[in-house]
Amino acid sequence: MENHNHPFYNPRLSYEENYQKGPFGDFTQKPEISIVNQPSVHFLGNKINLPFGIPAGPLLNGKYVKAALDWGYDLCVYKTVRTKKYKCHPLPNVLAIHPEHRLSENVDTVLADQNYDLPLSITNSFGVPSFDPDIWQPDMEDAVNYAKPGQVVIGSFQGTLGVTNHIEENYAEAARLVDETGVPLLEANLSCPNEGVNNLLCFDIDKVERIAHAIKNAVPDKPLMLKLAYFKDNKLLYSFLERLAPIVDGFCAINTLSARPVTSQGKQALGEDRPTGGVCGDAIRWAGEEMVSRLYEWRANHNEKFVIIGVGGVNSPEHYRTYLSLGADAVMSATGAMWNPALALQIKKALQ
Ligand SMILES: Cc1cc2nc3c(=O)[nH]c(=O)nc-3n(C[C@H](O)[C@H](O)[C@H](O)COP(=O)(O)O)c2cc1C
Prior knowledge:
- Pathway: Pyrimidine metabolism; UMP biosynthesis via de novo pathway.
- The chain has about 350 residues and is α/β, with parallel strands linked by helices.
- It has a single domain, classed as Aldolase class I (TIM Barrel), CATH 3.20.20.70.
- It has ten helices and 15 strands.
- It is globular.
- The structure holds flavin mononucleotide (FMN).
C-alpha cells in the first residue's frame, strides 16, 4: 500500500533540523476531532486515559511531546537524554527496509532505500544523541507540565561510557537530572552497546543490577522502568528477571532488532562505518509480541507486579488489542505513529 502520510519526523533532514524545525505533517496543528476521555486506567501510581503512547526516540523535544499529547497519546516518552551533549550519527539516520522473509534475530541483510511504503519497517541509526542538561531539563519540565489529566510524560535516559569510572554512576546522575524536571516516571535505556564486547548492555546482568541499584539509590521514590532489547534465550531472560524484577517497577520491550541494511547495489546503506542498524516497525512486531508473552508468563509464575509496556510494530487498533491480550499493561508505537500521527485517535475511536 502506498503511503500518503507525512511523517512527523522527516527522514531526509538531519536530526538537528528535525529538532529545530519539527515536528512536521499533522503534528504542526491540533487534531480536528477530539475524544472525550475518562482517566480510568491505573499505571504506576498515575491514572491515565488509554494505556497507549509513543516510546523513547521519535519525540525529540518538548514541541514533539506536546503535539503527541494533543493528538491523544496518553503515555509520551521524551527522547533518551544523557548527562552531557552527545553527537548524532550523520545522515542517513532513517531508511525504509524491505525484508524478503520474516526478519530474524540473527542480523539479516535487508534492502534499504527511501520508499516509505506501508506497512513500514525502518532502520534507525542515531547513536542516541543528546543536548546538555541545561537545554533538555527546562524543556522536559515544560512538556511534563503540558500533560492534561489522564496523560503522563516519561523521562528516558542512559549513561555514557567513559564519563565516570563506572557506568552505573553516570546512569544515576542522569536519573537524578531527569528527576529534577518533575517527570513522574523514569525509564533507563539499556539497549545500548556494552563496553568492549559486541553485545548490548541489557544482556550483562551484573552490570544492569548495579545500574538499577544506583538509580534507585539516587531517586528512591520514583517508579523506574527498564527498556529492553529482544532476548533470544529464555534462560538469560529468566535470570535477568530474577535479579531485576525485585528492584524495578516495569519493563518496556522491545527496542530494535539488528540488521545489515544494504542498497540495491549491495553497498552498506548507512555508510562505511555503520554495517548494522536497528530495525523497527512492522518487521519486528513478532519479536515485541513474543517478549511481552514471555514477560507476562514469568510475572504470573513468580507472582511479581512489574508493569509491561509492549513495543514493536504497532500500527493499527488490532495490534494494540493483540499486545494487551498477550499481557501488556500499556502499548507504544514509534514507527507506526511517526507515519500515522492519528493512530492514538484511531485506536480510541475503534474502542468506543
Ligand atoms: C526515530 C527513532 C529513534 C529512536 N530512539 C530511541 C532512543 O533514543 N531510546 C530508546 O530507548 N529507543 C529509541 N528508539 C526505539 C523505539 O523506542 C522503539 O523501541 C522501536 O522503534 C520499536 O518500536 P516501533 O516498531 O513501534 O518503531 C527509537 C526509534 C525510532 C524510530
